[in-house]
Amino acid sequence: MNIIVLGVLEFNSIAVGIKALDGIVKAASVKIIDARTICPGKFVILFTGDVAAVDASLTAGKGIGEGYIVDELFIPNLHSQIIPAIVGTVECKIWDAVAVIESFSVIASIEAADIAAKTANVLISEVRLAAGMGGKSYIKMIGNIDEVEAAVKSAVKVVGDKGLLCKEVIIPNPHPEIKPYFIY
């Protein structure tokens, strides 16, 4: 079994975020999954590696970004669907029910996707991270209706408890015309 470790830092300064990016890769042997400017004028860095490397790089990034960190995330056993859903490499054959969970935070959406995938047998088809959405993020999932409902319930609890839930919807028996908007 391939264990995926994820570290994420979100900064309210683009310049500090870029400086932290350099410090993160210098601190340990990690692979940058994504590092970019997000709305509204923030910078996010997602990286992976072994547990010790991600922990060391997360610590280094937090040290550089002190005072500019919006949120942070460390998941030592990320569900294997999450990174493909972030980078856009997911395929799907199921089409029974779909759901969208919209949040006010990049990190909340990543956590929601991980929890949903670990809770029920659903496909996380997309994790969209705040690009052109005023800082909001969302996840899309597909599966049979019972599994989708269970996944949404657990993910919404996590995001809602943080006060970062915008809205969730479940669409049973979605029309085939919307399928291209849920899968790649």
Beta-strand percentage range? 25-35%
- DSSP helix fraction: 25-40%
Rg from alpha-carbon coordinates:
16 Å
Task: Kindly give the count of domains.
Answer: 2
Shape: globular
User: Biggest sheet: strands side by side, in what order?
Assistant: 2-3-1-4
- The chain-level structural class is alpha+beta
What is the helix tally? 5
Q: Name the CATH superfamily assignment of the largest domain.
A: BMC (bacterial microcompartment) domain
Q: What is the arithmetic mean of pLDDT?
A: 94
User: What is the CATH topology assignment of the largest domain?
Assistant: Alpha-Beta Plaits
Summed up:
This protein has 184 residues and is of the alpha+beta class. Helix content is 35%, strand content 34%. The radius of gyration is 16 Å and the shape is globular.
Question: What topology does this entry show?
Answer:
Blueprint: E1 4-11, H1 14-27, E2 31-38, E3 42-49, H2 51-64, E4 69-78, H3 82-87, E5 97-103, H4 106-119, E6 123-129, E7 137-143, H5 145-161, E8 165-172
Antiparallel strand pairs: 1-3, 1-4, 2-3, 5-7, 5-8, 6-7
Keywords:
four-stranded antiparallel β-sheet; 2 domains; alpha+beta; globular; Alpha-Beta Plaits; single chain; 5 helices; 184 residues
